[in-house]
């Protein structure tokens, strides 16, 4: 009997100590970690303002490569939501939802999961730092309330290890991932780069000439474009084809001294009159697309000089419009690639541009282009 009383007294003392310590423990916990990147603020913000690259930087995907992630709501901004389901005990199931979004400066997520606590919230804030504000300091915070849940308060003793380690690892992965994105701001106010989007490009028939490595001077590049367009126009006329769009330049390499590119024109079956007129002008004018079946290659073509025929299958592309000098297009291509990567896309192949208002205008500030990168399927 005495032994039983001793056990009961010990249990009572333990329970009282548990209650006293639990009451004295904090009813909420807050964590904060920081990392710095030299990527543009637009790139950082767009990356964290959606969940399309969440599994590329958050450690969940490392801890459980088989984790199931489902996105819902808008693509980005307030209301965008990510649900996950994992068989790994420390991850379990839960959701992240963007509940606050301040352009280029702050993104806040409401978090629900199986761990104890309520009002779980994680915030990213962005602040220019370094010389001339060239770098961006990324600060991530995490807050959770336990209220009078004493077990939750005890669980809070380990939140720095469980959640804090994830935050630290996630920020390092985010910084490394951002380093792979071209450091070009595609959203500068007043820029003539516009209408960035992902779209489907249908199958096309292309007449193409490989221009080779051309000296990087306006005169040499312009002469190469016009000379090779003459061959394409002759081939158009010889085969009673019509241009189905403007001249297209496909970039292979832009070196310090040379520019290596191909020239192409999308074509469709038609009469010789339009091709003859274009040949007289020295370049092909844009033609409005018409309903035509380009799913099968053309056969029996008479290809003149260096002209080749290419049947291009349907692809998904990132695209944008730009007004300005042709010499600025390399920066535009990188800007479009940066935008595509923040949207969760991977670009492949070679970039290309439609010269919407012709060769001569391309060497002036009035050049009009539609710029494309093929996206990995």
UniProtKB/TrEMBL annotation:
<dbReference type="InterPro" id="IPR011256">
    <property type="entry name" value="Reg_factor_effector_dom_sf"/>
</dbReference>
<dbReference type="InterPro" id="IPR019587">
    <property type="entry name" value="Polyketide_cyclase/dehydratase"/>
</dbReference>
<protein>
    <submittedName>
        <fullName>Polyketide cyclase</fullName>
    </submittedName>
</protein>
<dbReference type="Pfam" id="PF10604">
    <property type="entry name" value="Polyketide_cyc2"/>
</dbReference>
<dbReference type="InterPro" id="IPR023393">
    <property type="entry name" value="START-like_dom_sf"/>
</dbReference>
